[in-house]
């Protein structure tokens, strides 16, 4: 019996999941005859549908429904929950750690393969801004989105119960850096949620909350074009959101965000969504990289000059053959990532069968963005929409795109229910510390304390 062709897919995001899913279909016979096998190595057992993260942060979709369980979808693949640390492509081996290797203390393990699909995506591109690494949060994962939701509501609870105006102001100031769709949608959805939530506080008004969007260039949402970007700025400013164009975050030490225009904003919330860079693994693959650190690919989605290696998505520099200018590469977005996986899987199957490969060609169709409940902006196939129609289109588009019928049905059910009932307004931040209650119960009783607290009602000025 011949040895099976071992296909290793690194990453279980858009590219990893869709490539493995399409390969399952393309290589049905080979997988059944055991002449091919597919292994997916990914740190999480799920794929995250990132465009739904802002709605998850707003509480319109529950966190479980923005992720897709890989074991269920990729039922003919072997799923390894772990992290690839390096590759030796000449020897066709990947070095990785899994939860078990960490538990056993055995160090890293090697995995041999014949064909490599490298799709570790991107991470936030940070700059050496003082205090950024210690105080800011990103917005790329479901953990960050839910953590941020809990944090915002918690800040409102702090502001409502403090008697110190400085603490109150800092708690109610939210600074977002980066005006792409991740930053704008996250800010717009959270502001909308917090505005609604404020009505349930006896001493908070929506106007007390200060939302600031800091963008280094002179526009936001470049994905929807200049005109719609200007509309988005007007929409946000109309909601009292402070949009600062041509401005950079200079520092965020000691809970003060200092902007390049000299503004100092005491705040406990700095959200960094200013651009992405390839995942750190890419530098440890030995594969050719471009000046932005992405893997250099051909239009056939092979790694340039390297046999049996394929790449796509945010970590790959794929030539945009539809662009007029030579040397243009595809932007890092889901629109390209998903379409690339179709060509990628077909090309892998074709190469195994000795058939010719195809080029990836897709001209950018435009984009849709939500600016909160019933508000949005869109520029798709030359059509410009704003307000409710754009928001509706955003929902319809993403409902059609979120993987699996199961997730589509659940998300639709949630949207329907949230139209009938009031929004959820609680912070479940304590979920991040599930043992806290038990630790308190198990701890010895504290020694009695002497000083009695000052009189007064929480949230009212001391006097
Ligand atoms: C908030 C937000 C909203 C967005 N909205 C839109 C939108 O509306 N439209 C649009 O077109 N695009 C959108 N995007 C961008 C889109 O989500 C990305 O372009 C897309 O996810 C890229 O796919 P990918 O497979 O390359 O990376 P990812 O989907 O990020 O997947 C990478 C995977 O690799 C794994 N990985 C990383 N390192 C390793 C390692 N060392 N070993 C093993 N696995 C590893 C990661 O854990 C992850 O599972 C949005 C992004 C964000 C953050």
UniProtKB/TrEMBL annotation:
Enzyme Commission identifier(s): 1.6.5.-
Listed InterPro entries: FAD/NAD-bd_sf, FAD/NAD-binding_dom, NDH-2
A molecular function GO annotation: oxidoreductase activity
Keywords: FAD, Flavoprotein, NAD, Oxidoreductase
Annotated ranges, domain FAD/NAD(P)-binding: 6-336
Name used for this protein in its record: NAD(P)/FAD-dependent oxidoreductase
Pfam families: Pyr_redox_2 (PF07992)
Naturally occurring in which organism (per UniProt): Streptomyces roseicoloratus
Gene3D superfamilies: 3.50.50.100
This protein's record includes keyword Membrane: no
Top-rank taxon: Bacteria
SUPFAM superfamilies documented for this protein: FAD/NAD(P)-binding domain
Disordered as annotated region, ranges: 437-463
Compositionally biased tracts (Pro residues): 443-456
Family statement: Belongs to the NADH dehydrogenase family.
């Amino acid at each position: 019996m011949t040895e099976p062709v071992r296909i290793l897919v690194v990453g279980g995001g858009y590219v990893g999941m869709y490539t493995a899913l399409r390969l399952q279909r393309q290589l049905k016979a080979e997988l059944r005859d055991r002449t091919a096998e597919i292994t997916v190595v990914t740190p999480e057992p799920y794929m995250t549908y990132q465009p739904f993260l802002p709605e998850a942060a707003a509480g319109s979709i529950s966190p479980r429904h923005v992720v897709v369980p890989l074991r269920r979808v990729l039922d003919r693949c072997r799923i390894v929950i772990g992290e690839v640390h390096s590759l030796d492509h000449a020897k066709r081996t990947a070095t990785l750690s899994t939860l078990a290797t960490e538990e056993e203390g055995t160090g890293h393990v090697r995995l041999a393969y014949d064909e490599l699909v490298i799709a570790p995506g991107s991470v936030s591109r940070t700059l050496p801004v003082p205090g950024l690494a210690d105080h800011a949060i990103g917005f790329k994962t479901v953990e960050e989105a839910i953590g941020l939701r809990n944090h915002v509501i918690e800040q409102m609870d702090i502001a409502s119960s403090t008697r110190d105006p400085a603490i109150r102001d800092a708690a109610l100031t939210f600074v977002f850096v980066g005006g792409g769709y991740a930053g704008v949608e996250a800010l717009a959805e959270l502001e909308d949620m917090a505005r609604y939530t404020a009505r349930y506080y006896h001493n908070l008004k929506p106007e007390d909350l200060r939302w600031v969007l800091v963008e280094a260039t002179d526009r936001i949402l470049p994905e929807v074009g200049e005109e719609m970007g200007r509309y988005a700025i007007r929409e946000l400013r109309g909601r009292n959101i402070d949009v600062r164009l041509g401005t950079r975050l200079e520092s965020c030490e000691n809970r003060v965000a200092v902007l390049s225009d000299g503004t100092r904003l005491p705040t406990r919330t700095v959200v960094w969504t200013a651009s992405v860079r390839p995942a750190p693994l890419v530098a440890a693959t030995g594969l050719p990289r471009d000046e932005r650190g992405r893997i250099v690919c051909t239009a056939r989605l092979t790694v340039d000059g390297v046999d049996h290696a394929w790449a796509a998505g945010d970590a790959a520099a794929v030539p945009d053959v539809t662009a007029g200018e030579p040397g243009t590469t595809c932007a890092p977005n889901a629109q390209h990532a998903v379409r690339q996986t179709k060509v990628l899987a077909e090309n892998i199957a074709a190469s195994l069968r000795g058939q010719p490969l195809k080029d990836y060609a897709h001209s950018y169709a435009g984009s849709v963005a939500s600016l909160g409940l019933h508000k949005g902006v869109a520029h798709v196939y030359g059509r410009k929409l704003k307000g409710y129609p754009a928001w509706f289109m955003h929902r319809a588009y993403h409902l059609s795109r979120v993987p699996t019928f199961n997730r589509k049905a659940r998300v639709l059910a949630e949207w329907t229910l949230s139209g009938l009932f009031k929004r959820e307004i609680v912070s479940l931040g304590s979920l991040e510390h599930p043992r806290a209650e038990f630790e308190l119960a198990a701890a010895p009783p504290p020694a009695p304390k002497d000083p009695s607290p000052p009189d007064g009602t929480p949230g009212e000025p001391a006097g």
